[in-house]
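A common beginner's mistake is to predict each chain separately and then try to dock the pieces by hand. The better habit, illustrated here, is to supply every component at once so that their relative placement is modeled jointly.
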Amino acid sequence: MGIDLIILGDSHSRALAEGARNLGLNIRDVTFSGALWHSGRFRYGKSGLVLGAVGTANAAMASLQKELGLSDILKAGIPVLTTMGFHLGRLVPPFGWHNHCAEAGDLHQYGQALHASAGFLHDYVDAFRAKHLKVLRQLSKSRTLIVVAPPVTFSRANYSVFRDHIKQRLIGAGVTLFDPMEDLAGGDGVLPADLIASDGTHANSLYGARVIEALQRRAMI
Amino acid sequence: MSKSPYQSLPAQAFWRSAVAEAGLFGLADLWKSPWILPADAVFVTYGSCFAQHISRALLSRKLNWLNAEPAPGGTSDGLARKYNYGIFSARTGNIYTAAQMLTWARLAAGLDQADSVELWTDAQGYVHDLLRPKIEPQGFADASAAHASVESTRRAFLRSVRDSDVFVFTLGLTEGWVNLETGRSYAICPGTSVGTFNPDIHAFRNYSYPEIMADLETAFDLLRGINPDLKILLTVSPVPLVASASGHHVLTATQYSKSVLRAVAGDLAQHAGHIDYFPSYEIIAAPSGRGTFFEPNMRSVAQQGVDFVMSHFFRGLNVSGPARPSGPDAATL
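With all components supplied together, the output reads:
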């Protein structure tokens, strides 16, 4: 039985992998912590995506490469879903350490808030995500890569601004992007409770299945 | 027959012994702070460009310099500097004139609102606030973002006044520009990199001694209304004018400007116990300096000059008072 789907990314990939498996797809996944993605433990080389020291994910990648008979897993002609590039949990909280908000409207929600401009946000994201954006642009040349934006499981200052900003940067870089929230958001813009994992931060396997189905409906995979 | 009063004066009162014979690097006792500050005294710094050196020097001596509007967490030093974070205690940019100082004091005191600050939209659609025309490298996305940024700095400026012990303010210019319709002062002449000059609205002002004195007295009263214990340390920037619109030669215009500012600062310090003057201007610009610390353009002050000024500052500063039991509010530093 051939491989239907490869999933590559951070902790948000797990829901996608579980959902895909529950739908009966034959998948392979290579996932590791968003902290390591954030710190740039990867690069683009002659053999495509090259991972640094990322724990057990190195073994998963090596196993997949061996199974495919390819060093560049994106050249197998199999759709690759990735949650790489966002890792908002590592990016957004530090931005707010001194009460900064990226949305001018949030300034008036409490008296100690400070506004940081859109220009600053752009440069701040560049400082931490320029490498991610560049590598994703290079990986996208395979035409099999789809970046899946992370689920919105809560409404907290700055998350949506950063999420939207990175989305626009990816689209601008020519990366194929799918935003599950277009299909799955509740009226408040947040994922419905039945699609959220017990940790309150990640989505669950039901969400993963819904995302896969949405991609199938759009003939993206 | 009584002696001349000069006969009992100390050596520092005589040019020959205190300056000519001592030489530039032998100058001593140029300044002695009248205040015994607590060891954990909190300083804030504002003013013209020379003021930024004081914050760096305070930090290098491990003194408490309050940055009330720091860059977002995780920001590199280079990025922070690009957006003018960490230059002054709030992101005011350079405050060149007493009129501008009064504008910030009125904003902090709540007499004016952030949305009263004039904005200007450039050809690319970016919005600039004319109180801090160069605060953003590109400008703001829209008017609401620009006013939100001014409001952020207003909050930070207010907090810096409220939570500090010493407000260091470097006076820079007497020359400025005002809007004849609103009466507002500009940081730089509209049309000079930011704004569009309109001779019917924009007028040159070379602020006089009484005007500067009145603006500073009002401003400092407002600041002390926020923090009654606030001490104010004035300095005058030794950096000459880039250009003068006064009609006079820029050299004489510079001397006029610095002389007026020096006189105002001196008089304020002489008549109020909570105001003092530190002679950074004299250390660099007086004949004893022989222009030693000016760069070849005879305007920029070399780092060695800054270090020399600050060595005198720290020699005269008295932070021997006991630290407060609870210390300064750690969350504010």
